[in-house]
């Protein structure tokens, strides 16, 4: 391909999968990141250009991405990396994508819609799991009920974890949860609400967690009330409630640094064989003011395998000029059926809620 795609954070666990998928699909991406040693080794393996730079100095970032047509940000924590890369992309007229899933980061990105439109660039965050499947399912259900006012989405599975994912979970452990009420984000305690969901006929208990769809569902559909859930065992639900009083401690800088150092030492991420045995299930329901409802579910491959596929595909479409300037969610950019284009993804309209 002649268009230049720069992958920032290319040597991390998920970034490495995305880089491999990009090469397999015919891209020759520029591999970029903060650490020279792993980046140079990766670039040598693929025979690709590499660029080492931090995000501390705006002029440096702008210089290093200026000749790229698009940046795909794979480097967490996205609370630290999204803003400086978006700043640079707006200044240089470079398209921006990422695989962020934090609702607060996605809200900040959405607020830059006007800047991106004025600069003539696309802002397309969250092009991986969990947002691509949940956002597509939400948009699909919105078409089934007139004027939906409430959305509930739950994820079951999540059996594999990379170092970056564990770090993101720890980063959010110091924050409260969140839901959307009447169009506004509201902070709520961890495991604030419990609800039963049916996944392929299997009833499971889930508690509220702040998935990215708390942000993206509203921007895609305008549904003003959104709750997102995850299935967790009973003992974990109890632990989450007891941990509410420790959120301030968990969010303290030195504690976060110590926890993340432990992650670096002990978490390696799933093997290809482990990913092949992993899958996720998503259930969602919309409801309108008249009490009309529609529900559906998705089954997806492993979190990381699906992310690599969707991220590379989305980047290719942006490079092809298929997405207009400004901020977009995945379903806004590509449609409610987009996720069904990927192998191993199936949608079911028979899920039930209690």
TrEMBL record:
One Pfam family assigned to this protein is Sacchrp_dh_NADP
Q: Which residues form the Saccharopine dehydrogenase NADP binding domain?
A: 6-124
Query: SUPFAM superfamilies under this entry?
Result: NAD(P)-binding Rossmann-fold domains
Annotated PANTHER family: SACCHAROPINE DEHYDROGENASE
Query: What is the protein's given name?
Result: Saccharopine dehydrogenase NADP binding domain-containing protein
Instruction: Look up and give the organism this protein is from.
Output: Halogeometricum pallidum JCM 14848
């Amino acid at each position: 391909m002649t268009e230049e795609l720069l992958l920032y954070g290319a040597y991390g666990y998920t970034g490495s999968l995305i880089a491999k998928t990009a090469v397999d699909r015919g891209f020759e991406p520029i591999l970029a990141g903060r650490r020279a040693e792993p980046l140079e080794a990766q670039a040598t393996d693929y025979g690709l250009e590499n660029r080492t730079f931090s995000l501390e100095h705006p002029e440096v970032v702008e210089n290093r991405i200026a000749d790229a047509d698009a940046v795909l940000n794979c480097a967490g924590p996205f609370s630290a990396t999204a803003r400086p890369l978006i700043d640079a992309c707006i200044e240089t007229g470079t398209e921006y994508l990422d695989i962020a899933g934090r609702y607060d980061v996605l809200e900040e990105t959405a607020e830059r819609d006007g800047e991106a439109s004025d600069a003539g660039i696309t802002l397309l965050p969250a092009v991986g799991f969990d947002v691509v499947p949940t956002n597509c399912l939400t948009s699909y259900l919105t078409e089934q009920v007139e004027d939906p006012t409430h959305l509930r989405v739950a994820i079951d599975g999540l059996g594999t974890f990379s170092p970056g994912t564990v770090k993101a979970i720890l980063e959010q452990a110091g924050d409260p949860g969140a839901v959307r009420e009447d169009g506004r984000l509201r902070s709520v305690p961890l495991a604030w609400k419990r609800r039963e969901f049916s996944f392929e006929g299997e009833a499971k208990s889930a508690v509220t967690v702040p998935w990215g769809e708390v942000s993206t569902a509203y921007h895609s559909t305008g549904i003003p009330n959104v709750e997102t859930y995850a299935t967790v065992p009973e003992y974990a639900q109890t632990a989450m409630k007891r941990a509410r009083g420790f959120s301030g401690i968990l969010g303290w800088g030195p504690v976060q640094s110590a926890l993340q150092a432990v992650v670096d030492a002990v978490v390696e991420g799933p093997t290809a064989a482990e990913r092949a045995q992993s899958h996720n299930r998503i259930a969602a329901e919309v409801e309108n003011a008249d009490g009309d409802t529609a529900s559906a579910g998705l089954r997806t491959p492993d979190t990381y395998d699906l992310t690599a596929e969707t991220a590379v595909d989305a980047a290719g479409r942006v490079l092809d000029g298929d997405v207009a300037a400004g901020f977009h969610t995945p379903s806004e950019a590509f449609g409610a059926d987009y996720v069904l284009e990927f192998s191993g993804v199936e949608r079911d309209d028979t899920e039930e809620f209690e």
